[in-house]
Amino acid sequence: MVHELAAYERAPDECHLTADQLTAALFGPAPALYGHVAVDDRDEPVGFALWFLNFSTWAGVHGIHLEDLYVRPKARGTGAGRLLLATLAAICVERGYRRLEWSMIDWNPAAGFYAAIGAEQLGEWIPYRLSGDALRQLARRAHAPTHPAA
């Protein structure tokens, strides 16, 4: 379904996740990724949520960052997405986490759904990403000798 999500987001060639990678991330010796799967009345998977913990230094507690939420087209409008988000909200409340956060591609029609459940768009926060050559170039500086400014 992750590959289905990538196709939905118009980026199928950017998704390189393998079943082995996902299995290791979810079930390896030190899992850093958590997931939930929504199923229909025949036990067929219709959606998923993949998430990890974040931490608020200001609040001093963890929260959940929802990395991916996807519901297959045939199951949209059935409540599967709401149930997945409600499950994560319940985890937050039960564990004392202060927030559940995610990013959404700007053209996604789910914005109305998110607003309807009370989610707020964080307009003052701008996402940044470092990847590819820029990531490798900066990483090389971690091992470069430092010289104080003259």
Automatic annotation (TrEMBL):
Pfam families recorded: Acetyltransf_1
Domain N-acetyltransferase: 1-140
Keyword terms: Acyltransferase, Transferase
Gene Ontology MF terms: N-acetyltransferase activity
Annotated signal sequence range: none
Superkingdom per UniProt: Bacteria
PANTHER family in the record: DIAMINE N-ACETYLTRANSFERASE, GH14572P-RELATED
Family named by the database record: Belongs to the acetyltransferase family.
Protein's recorded name: GNAT family N-acetyltransferase
Organism field: Micromonospora costi
